[in-house]
Amino acid sequence: MGRTAGRTALHALLARLATELELNGNDLVIDREKAELLMEELKPKPSPLQLFYEQIKDCRKCPLAESRTNFVFGTGDENADIMFIGEAPGAEEDRLGEPFVGRAGQLLNRMLNEVGLRREEVYIANVLKCRPPGNRDPRPEEVAQCLPYLLKQIELIQPKVLVCLGRIAAQTLLKTLSPLSRLRGQIHHFQGIPMVVTYHPAALLRNMGNYERSISDLRFALRVYHEAAEREAGGEETGAEGA
């Protein structure tokens, strides 16, 4: 996604560069000031998601900012079609500044690989961006301050499917108190985006008996994704025919 537009912009800049070149005998001459301006334009510009991170990375809206080591924003493909959402960073995530990098993250990577996905092609974030002390559950006042950040991430990424990892993420986005057992195995919708709910990898580490159920949930999410993509493609074809 976006590669064609990037190549087009690069070609345009190279064409402009070519117009500034002058031959002086056998030497190639270019105006230094113009060259510096063109090189500045060639530098990669920060994405909307990167700009958003810069805006909020120093957040101190709740007391969790006092105890955190790192603000844990998110990781993965900024154009991902599938977005995974957990509840909050753990100790390793707080130390490294990246979600799902501890034992639960390693298990998540294994789960992704098992269903044919790679960590680099999805996006992973949490409801909270700072670790609650002792890995306790997020408090309502903390969620109230941090949830708008997650909602903005979803808006910027525009995934086709959301996968909630665990009860807390699902209950937060769906505004429900229903237990995980009732939330799994069905398609929910969040702001028009299909959502599937499964176990949090940390919970699976405590009870690997649910591992195969979680893999089934991820395969279900993939089916939901493919169906959504097919509907979108069908709609584009219909629109093209009617144009």
Structural class: alpha/beta
CATH architecture: 3-Layer(aba) Sandwich
Q: List the strand order in the largest sheet.
A: 3-5-4-6-8-7
| First and last CA, distance | 24 Å
Largest sheet: 6 strands, mixed
User: What percentage of the residues does DSSP assign to strands (E)?
Assistant: 5-15%
The CATH C-level name is: Alpha Beta
Net shape: globular
Structurally, the number of domains stands at 1
How is this fold's topology laid out?
Blueprint: H1 3-20, E1 22-24, E2 27-29, H2 32-42, H3 48-56, H4 64-67, E3 75-76, E4 82-86, H5 91-96, H6 103-114, E5 123-126, H7 140-157, E6 161-165, H8 167-174, H9 180-183, E7 188-190, E8 193-198, H10 201-206, H11 211-242
Parallel strand pairs: 4-5, 4-6, 6-8
Antiparallel strand pairs: 1-2, 3-5, 7-8
Helix pairs in contact: 1-2, 3-7
Question: In words, what does this structure look like?
Answer:
Strands 3-5-4-6-8-7 form a six-stranded mixed β-sheet, sandwiched between helices. The chain has helices at 3-20, 32-42, 48-56, 64-67, 91-96, 103-114, 140-157, 167-174, 180-183, 201-206, 211-242, and strands at 22-24, 27-29, 75-76, 82-86, 123-126, 161-165, 188-190, 193-198. It has 243 residues and is of the alpha/beta class. It has a single domain (49-238), classed as Uracil-DNA Glycosylase, subunit E (3-Layer(aba) Sandwich), CATH 3.40.470. Mean pLDDT is 89; it is low at 1-5. Helix content is 53%, strand content 13%. It contains eleven helices and eight strands.
